[in-house]
Design a protein that fits this description.
The protein has 132 residues and is of the alpha/beta class. Helix content is 48%, strand content 17%. The chain has a four-stranded parallel β-sheet, sandwiched between helices. A two-stranded antiparallel sheet has the order 2-6. The chain is globular.
Length: 132
């Protein structure tokens, strides 16, 4: 192996380390999320877009903070995160994927976070919902 090739390989390995060190976001049930919110230990956040929420409804205690705002200028997210410092942020979306993505980014920022999956899980548990 040439020294140039070794440097390239080591450089690529170094790039992979952040991917391997991705923040873990625990997955919890909708019922557990509801308990933590009711106990005042956590805040529930729906990361779906407004049109999705209007169409299907939202979990009754949820704050609506779309993923597009999180990925953008965070006009809604920044003030929200300031007001909930020290509390767990529990996220959900349609199926849990977007909640997981936002959760990983928040965990890297030091926020205590959990993924409650999708709105369908909330409905399946027959937990309270509302129209936004």
């Amino acid at each position: 192996m040439t020294s140039s090739f070794k440097r390239i390989v080591l450089g690529l390995v170094g790039l992979a380390v952040p991917v391997l060190a991705a923040a873990e976001v625990p997955r919890i049930t909708a019922a557990e999320a509801a308990r933590r919110v009711a106990d005042g230990k956590a805040v529930l956040v729906d990361v779906r877009e407004p049109a999705e929420c209007a169409e299907s409804g939202v979990a009754a205690p949820a704050v609506l903070l779309p993923m597009s705002d999180f990925r953008g200028d965070q006009a809604l997210w920044k003030p929200f995160l300031e007001t909930v410092k020290g509390r767990e942020v529990i996220l959900y979306c349609r199926s849990g994927g977007r909640a997981g993505n936002v959760g990983e980014a928040l965990a890297k920022q030091g926020v205590t976070v959990a993924n409650a999956g999708g709105f369908k899980d909330w409905e399946a548990e027959k937990l309270p919902t509302r129209k936004p």
